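Example complex used in Figure S2.
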Amino acid sequence: MDQSDATASVRGERKAPATIYDIARHTGFSPSTVSRALNKPGRLNATTERRIRDAAEELGYRINPMARALPTGKTGTLGLVVSDITNPVYFDLVRGAEHIASEADSTLIFADSQESARLERSIAERLQTSVDGLLLVGSRLGDQDIRELSSVKPLVVVNRLVDGVPAVVPDVAPGIEAALGALRERGHRRIAYLAGPEASWMNTLRWQTLFDLAVSWGLSIVEIKSTEPTRAGGAEAFQRIVAADVTAVFAYNDLIALGLLRASRDRGVAVPESLSIVGFDDIFGADLPTPALSSIRSPLGELGERATRRLLTEIDGAPAEAGAALPTRFIDRESIAAVRS
Amino acid sequence: MDQSDATASVRGERKAPATIYDIARHTGFSPSTVSRALNKPGRLNATTERRIRDAAEELGYRINPMARALPTGKTGTLGLVVSDITNPVYFDLVRGAEHIASEADSTLIFADSQESARLERSIAERLQTSVDGLLLVGSRLGDQDIRELSSVKPLVVVNRLVDGVPAVVPDVAPGIEAALGALRERGHRRIAYLAGPEASWMNTLRWQTLFDLAVSWGLSIVEIKSTEPTRAGGAEAFQRIVAADVTAVFAYNDLIALGLLRASRDRGVAVPESLSIVGFDDIFGADLPTPALSSIRSPLGELGERATRRLLTEIDGAPAEAGAALPTRFIDRESIAAVRS
DNA sequence: CCTATTCTGTCAATCGATTGCCAGTTTGGC
DNA sequence: GCCAAACTGGCAATCGATTGACAGAATAGG
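Predicted assembly (682 residues):
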């Protein structure tokens, strides 16, 4: 129900917020002095500063970020563009980014490109006019597009590498190695990779890493396409998985893995007895189904923190300091098992 | 790994974005004419307008929202404050809000109060200086706080009712009635409500509605406290639920329900055979466990759309038009069953 | 052909803050 | 005591856009 109390609606009589001019008038100092009292501690006589600060407090003064942005060129705002806000993967990443941003007194603006490169580009462009820098997570854009955006304002890409653009990516090898090792120990020899979007850099990184490792271990491996990186996409791929005659499958992400898991159960293929499944990201809910999904987890929170910190230094024009690697980890739950003899 | 290509870093040589002054110089018209050409179609000679628009295009002109905000007082931005960004409930709501906002050419700023009223208030205040209006979802603030915020700038609350403040809430009755009806049919007579945060208005609405209905149907019902509205909180409440000797429980939200479901399974209490569980919100993942969780779903997407539209009209100072009710719906999956004789 | 409109484009003030430069006042060193 | 250095605070320009008022030009009506 849509409720609104017509009687008491406060609309109309909102009083304009206090400005430094109000404080100036109120204290008898000039606006520039007020500005200094508020932003350059120590620049003025201590008593003056005190008086002005008190007046500001009293008048409920809040700085107008827009007005400040004009002369300084700094908006105190960071933009975060993700491909799909509906994907639980981004939880921790967002949290991490938020955390660092608020530490630095910046606000985070959030946008969703709905898995569309065209939309992503236009959103990023619009956002760029109002932020100090941009975080692009799992971008579907071409390298050239990203480089162009990066030439306009500071930008950091996450889960992606682009020549000449600052980036933060996890090290996928440890997690993949652990998972593939667990599978090999349990007798698996024929493995499939259920792929994600072709435009996803992370998809090809995962596939490539898995492929190289499997080959070097003498395992056979195939890539199987999926229609979309969602539960529906995973379910849809079920038939192609069984047709491929493999005993284990890595899915590009947990959403796909979850869809496949469910489809398998529904069609009478036992997981993990007849088919082992490993996802990526260890999203919220991965541990919910029976069997609980085994997954390769990225340190998303740290990724978000790291990327944001990187963006902040980029904005300050400071040199980037390399950080330690951010390794992925294999969370082994119940969706893998030994091959039946 | 933290990657950055030192060689190609574009930093430093970013060229300043084009302004209306650049366009003015480039076309020989005055800045005010440029402004009019871009914002008041028809106000100028068609040829002039064309020439200016072309030049703008050519120079890659993007309006500076900060600069515009100063004289107009409109930032073209809406703020959305949720209590916990990590709660999947907000997905659809955010999507809905985003959808309407982008239709209206506004950007959505997103903030998270981490379930803390203090933080929520300070975040809201900070945000208010840079947005045209605020959306408060599931606010933990007191009525008075909300009214004060509302007196500064347009504000709409979602999932909450506050005297004198525009609000959008779903109608919880239909879903609760359907769920309780299903339970009654299956022989349940002793029901528990596993409560959410006391500061949550929606919590008391759900409890109250459930309570009244149960009483009027002659069912016995108890409220059981939980420590926090998360899976951990639900698990933690398990013992108190069994001690209460009920055959069915409604949980304040799906997170709690999921936690309880898991705890029950782990401690050997069969769901739904020995205990029926109903959640609220039907979040992502509710259908994942075995048994899949039955849940009462709010039309969150529409809620978000409605609230955003309402905020937009509030900003324009237009009168609010009442909309149709937004009924909840009972999604019956596998977590309820008949009482064992 | 003359006046009354309607068009077009420019001027200049304004939004709220920041900041380089300057001048008057203190303070300090010797 | 005298001069230099350090403090304090104000002036005025600036950031990029918007907009009311106005003037000259074009058009219309009779």
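Chain A has 13 helices and twelve strands. Chain A touches chain B through 76 residues (CB under 8 Å).
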